[in-house]
Amino acid sequence: MAVTLSVGLHKKIGQPDYGSLCASCHVEFEIDRTLLDGDLDGFHHKVRSAFAACQQSVEEQLSRQQAGPASLVSNGYHQDGHANGNSHPHSNGSGHHNGNGSQHTNGRLATASQVRAIHAIANKARIDLPGKLNQRFGVSRADDLTLSQASEMIDAIKPQTNGTGGRR
């Protein structure tokens, strides 16, 4: 009679600014019941081997996420906190990077509220948003900004609404 052996491993690594990388592996296979009844060492060997295989797979995946190109990293930034591969952060899978070499301490992407605010302010002030974003951060969409970049952008364009009919 066969017995199903199920082994799994999940590992999560915390990153700066509440980001994280994670990987998991789960294997399930049948083993001969006699291992449990008559060869406990053989059973433990099977379990250890399956666990070791999962552990190796998880470590390799996390290593690829930490050192790989932006598209493999989960938040769009390399582990060292930079987006362009010259020492820049990544944890949500967006793969977006700024490419201008400026350092950012916050690798999380802009919130939906920040993106809406940027669009609203830019529309009201008649700002060429794609041009301004490209010039300042090397991106073409507000969605590609990090949390800190979006905050910086709002601060930068908000005063420009004065004198353009933006006052009440």
Could you state the order of secondary-structure elements as H and E?
A: EEHHHHH
Strand arrangement, largest sheet? 1-2
**Assembly state of the chains shown:** single chain
- Please, how many helices? 5
Sheet with most strands: 2 strands, antiparallel
User: Average pLDDT value?
Assistant: 74
Spans of at least 5 consecutive residues whose pLDDT stays below 50 are: 69-106, 164-168
Structural class: alpha+beta
| First-residue to last-residue Cα separation | 80 Å
Tally of DSSP β-strands: 2
Gyration radius over CA: 24 Å
Number of self-contained structural domains: 2
Question: Could you characterize the architecture of this molecule?
Answer:
This protein is α+β, with helices and mostly antiparallel strands and 168 residues long. It folds into 2 domains: 2-71; 110-168, no CATH class. 40% of the residues lie in helices and 15% in strands. The chain contains 5 helices and 2 strands. The protein has helices at residues 34-38, 40-67, 112-125, 129-137, 147-157; strands at residues 2-14, 20-32. A two-stranded antiparallel ribbon has the order 1-2. Helix 3 packs parallel to helix 5. The longest helix has 28 residues, at 40-67. It is rod-shaped, with a radius of gyration of 24 Å. The termini are far apart. 26% of the residues are buried. Residues 69-106 and 164-168 have low confidence and may be disordered.
